[in-house]
Every structure is written in structure tokens, then in C-alpha cells.
Amino acid sequence: MRHIAVTTPGVLVSSDIGIAQNATLKPIGEIAARLGIPAASIENYGHYKAKIALDYIDTLKDKPDGKLILVTALSPTPAGEGKTTTTVGLGDALNKIGKKAVICLREPSLGPVFGMKGGAAGGGYAQVVPMEDINLHFTGDFSAIGLAHNLLSALIDNHIHHGNELGFDVRRIAWKRVMDMNDRALRDITVALGGPGNGFPRQDGFDIVVASEVMAIFCLANSLVDLKERLGNIVVGYRRDLTPIHARDLKAQGAMTVLLKEALKPNLVQTLENNPAFIHGGPFANIAHGCNSVLATSTALKLADYVVTEAGFGADLGAEKFIDIKCRKSGLRPAAVVIVATIRALKYHGGADLKQINQENLAALEKGIANLERHVSNVRNQYGLPCVVSVNHFTADTDAEHTVLAKKMASLDVPLVLARHWAEGGAGATDVARKVVEIVEKGAANFRFVYDEKQTLWDKVKTIATKIYGAADISGDSKIRARFEELQKTYGHYPVCIAKTQYSFSTDPALRGAPSGHMVNIREVRLAAGAEFIVVVCGDVMTMPGLPKVPSADKIDIDAQGRVVGLF
Fold first, then answer.
1. Which of 260, 280, 313 is the last residue of a domain?
2. Which helix (H) or strand (E) holds 537?
């Protein structure tokens, strides 16, 4: 058992990584045994990480499912909300009040870790550990996904170099390369320079690994067989007559699946309070569905009474895609939703300046609550799910601010609970846990999708824009309209995945609060035939982010004892 001097909960260490490094971790075999997973069915990655064997997961299919709790949030702000922290804290709290609970999270991408975010394993006393490993390489899943993706890229250019038997139109290759790092210089590049031996020069580019269709497929696949079939269905390019060329035409799916066979096994780790957590997969929440893998979630549901999971960004993006893509494809059904909010974020949505966000501002707060109200309305009236609002407590919050928010939520008959898990761990979220159990036991869920799969692709996008975003309508030029009509013929039954800014209900990140009557303009439409959805790009969305002026990498270091510092 790893043991470093334990810090008393409530007495804060200078950083999240300091808290994590002062934790007591149990051998991962003990965590697995608590869930009833035999030692022979876990594959250890050191002492505190393990993968769960797929053949063991197959034996669970006839077991009843526990209750699935979705954690989402208001529209993200620079002030921060703490969605992952709440997911971890709620999982710990459910275990603390006597429920058998498992947490399901996405794996962090190295791009944000070294870019702006600095880590994604929770915070304070609500973290998953070992946090350094989870944030840095973990069990190698993202490396495997990147390799599988880039193998397909190499096979495309190799095929063209050796005669192009499939007839690729090199102007219409639809498959970029990927790497798990923010590097704006690679967004648009030219490949194959240097003469005939290096292939045919063409325009290309890189996306970040989490934006790869392979990542989206990985998180939706329910088996190796399903994974291989989906990989084969990827459309990698088009001929001059615009007929599609698939990965299976290059015979790529078998080798790609070989690279992913170990990665597909869900990862098991633990929280600071030694409760089980599955961390597996991590697709972009704006360009893909933004949820952890179906395999991890469905496995957890067979092993626990309650499973707490999160969806990326706010309830307009992450929760909608969780409902309309992940749940539609997998049969998963949440029993309740937790919407995370902070007084700081609500004031920001009400127009408060970020530099003054810690000052009491009741006018900005009242105005900003409109953002939370719309998310609550969407969850209850569009998704048909009961919800509780969990407010992360900050020391700068005032009693007057909390009173304003409480009165507003009471008028809507929405349960509102103050949470202190960041400072107190699971004990600080027991009120949230009890409220979640209460609404789950009432059985009030009337789950429904936002749109019907029989609607046209255009009408699906319009339904989301008008019902969820409060928009007046959607628009697109003649080329966009033609692309919709073309895709409708073969893929009209697919769900749609809207890629837009996460910071606003509109496509303009500067429009805070709850804007209404705006137009959602469609810039691009992409086919993800392997993942089985249509990506609709609205506004300026980057699939290869850049680093900020002062990246988190500046602060990350290692000391003489080999301990990582500055990670978060």
C-alpha cells in the first residue's frame, strides 16, 4: 500500500497535486474486489491502475443495471464551475451514505493539460488518483487511438503512391492526421514534399486526438467486433464521381483494431477516499459526444447501485449529446441529472467583469440566473429528467447571493443544494447525494430524446437550435443545403452532433446569459460514418487548439525525487 502523510480533510494543501500526493492509495486489486471483480479479470498497470478484461465484462450482461446519474452544468465560464469535481464528490458522498457507487469519467487529453487547463482529474479533496498518471499518458489509450488513426492516414497516402487503384480524388481526402497536443502550426500543412519517392504532395492537417473519429467510435463501441465494423465504415475520401471510399476498402480496420484491443478495456482507478472510478475515453464535447466510453458506463452499471458520470461542457452541448447520441446508440437511460453551478459563473453570465467576480453583485447574479434557468428547463422539459442544482461553494460567496439564488430556484420548484466537496471531500456533498437518492427513488424520470430519428437531418439541427438553444432558426448557404440533401439520402437516420462554442447558447461566445431569437448559422457539415453521426459545425470551432500565451507547461516540472509539480 502506498502511504504518504495524510492531510486532514478541510486543511488545504497549496495545490491539487499536493493533496493527491499526500493521499493514501489502496492497491487496485482491493478496489476491484469491492466491486466483485476477480483478480484474474484485472490487468494491473502498476499498483494503482488496472484494466478490466473484456471476457469478464461479457459475463455481466444478464445482471440488472444500477441507477445512472448524469452530471452536467450551466454554460462554462472562465470563472469555473467544477463539473468533474462534483462528479467525484458526489460519487464519494453516495458511498459515504451507504450506497454502492462508481464514478465514470473521461480521460484527460495532454493538449489541455499542457495548454490552458492544467489537468482534469477533479480538484481539492474530490479527485481521482493517481492524478499525475491519469493526466499524463495514463494506460496509453490515447496513444493507441492516435496510432490507429495515423495508421489509416499512412495507408491512404501509401495507396495513392502505389497507383491509387481505388481512385482517390486527392482534393477530397477526408481524413487528417492527429496528435494529442495543442499545436496550431499543424492545422493546415502540405505533405509529401521532396520528390516522387515521398508520394504526391497535397494539402493536409492535424486534429487533436480527442477530435478523432476513432476516439468517437472507441467510446461508442460495445465490443471488439463492433469496434472493427465501425472502423471499417469510416469514410476516408471520395472519388471524382463523389462516391465514398471507406477504411474497409483499404483493408485497414483489422490492423486498427489490433492497435486498440488493449485500449478498449475500461480503466479502473480510485478516488482520494478509495472509491472505485472508471476513466475511459474522452471525445471532444463540441466536435463529438463528449462522454466516457459506453463500455465503461455499462460495465459500472452492472457492478454498482449508482453510477455517476459527466458529459462535457454545459447541458446544451454535453447533456444533449449524452441523450441524443450516447443514450440513443447504447440504450442507457439516466435516472436523474445534477446541474452544477457557481455564484461566480452566474454573475459572469449576468455581465460581471471577471476581475471583479469575487465581489458581491446581486444585479449581475439575478440577470445571470437566466442561463441556469434555461438549462434546468431543458433538462426537465426537453429531456424529461428530474434534476437537482448543486452549487459549488466559494469563500467569496455571500449569504445575500445564495439567498437570491435559493429564492429563484424555489420559485421553479428546483432542489438547490450547497456543496463543499472541494474542501471537505465526500462529506461536503452528502446533502447532494441524499437529494439525488430521493428523486431517483421517486421514479420521476420521463426520459425522451430531443428529436425523432425519422426527422430529416436539417430538421434535427433546427429542433436542437430552437428547443435547446432558444434560437429563432438555422441557416446555411447553398453548398451547406446541398450537403444536407446529399447526406440525407444515405445517412438521414443518423443523429446530429452540433459543434459550436460552449460558452453561449448562441454561436457567439460573447453572448452570455440566455440569448434568444438568434440565428444559428452552419459553416460546415462532416460525415462520421463509423461513429454514426453527422457533425454540424457552427461558428468558429477548432479541432486543433493552440497553446495560450502562457501555457500550463510553463509551470509543470519534476523535482529531484521524481515528483511531478505544477500539474494543477
1. 260
2. strand 533-538
- pTM attached to this predicted model: 0.94
Of 341, 319, 299, whose CA–CA distance to 432 is shortest?
341
Alpha carbon 37 to chain centroid, angstroms: 26
308 and 343 together in one domain:
yes
Q: For residue 559, is it within any domain?
A: no
Length of the chain: 568
Contact 472, 517 (CB under 8 A): yes
Separation between Cα atoms, residue 446 and residue 6, nearest integer Å? 44
Crossing angle (nearest 10°) for helices 213-220 and 141-161: 130
- The reply to whether 567 falls in a domain is no
553 in a structural domain: no
pLDDT of residue 7: 36
Contact (Cβ atoms closer than 8 angstroms) between residue 322 and residue 291: yes
Residue 80 is predicted with a pLDDT of: 77
Q: Determine, yes or no, domain membership for 552.
A: no
pLDDT for 5: 30
Report the b/e string of 407-439 with b at 16+ CB within 10 A: ebbeeeebbbbbbbbbbbbbbbbbbbbebbbeb
Which residue do the cell numbers 472493427 mark? Answer: 228
Q: Are 134 and 48 in contact (CB under 8 A)?
A: no
CATH number at residue 87: 3.40.50.300
> Can you give the pLDDT at residue 1?
37
In sequence order, the 6+-apart residues with CB closer than 8 A to the CB of 304 are 35, 66, 100, 101, 102, 276
Report the catalytic residues.
Answer: 83, 85, 106, 117, 285, 313, 394, 422
Task: List, as own/partner pairs, every contact residues 436-439 make where C-beta atoms lie below 8 angstroms and the sequence separation is at least 24, other chains included.
Answer: 436/69, 436/90, 436/94, 436/306, 436/336, 436/338, 436/388, 437/94, 437/97, 437/99, 437/306, 439/336, 439/386, 439/387, 439/388, 439/415
DSSP class of residue 553 equals G
Task: DSSP letter for 379, please.
Answer: I
Write the single-letter amino acid at 121.
A
Where a domain ends, among 260, 282, 314?
Answer: 260
Q: With beta carbons less than 8 A apart as the criterion, state whether 523 and 383 touch.
A: no
pLDDT digits (tens, 9 = 90+) for 221-280: 999 999 999 999 999 999 999 999 999 999 999 999 999 999 999 999 999 999 999 999
- Distances in Å between the Cα of 98 and the Cα atoms of 246, 539, 560 are 50, 46, 42
Ranges in the chain, pLDDT < 50: 1-13
Give the CB-side neighbour count of residue 296, counting CA atoms within 13 A: 30
Grouping H, G, I as helix, E, B as strand and the rest as coil, residue 283 is coil
- Residue 378 three-state SS: helix
Pair 115, 156 in one domain: no
The CA distance from 113 to 115, in Å, is 6
Residue span of the structural domain in which 304 resides: 2-21+33-140+263-442
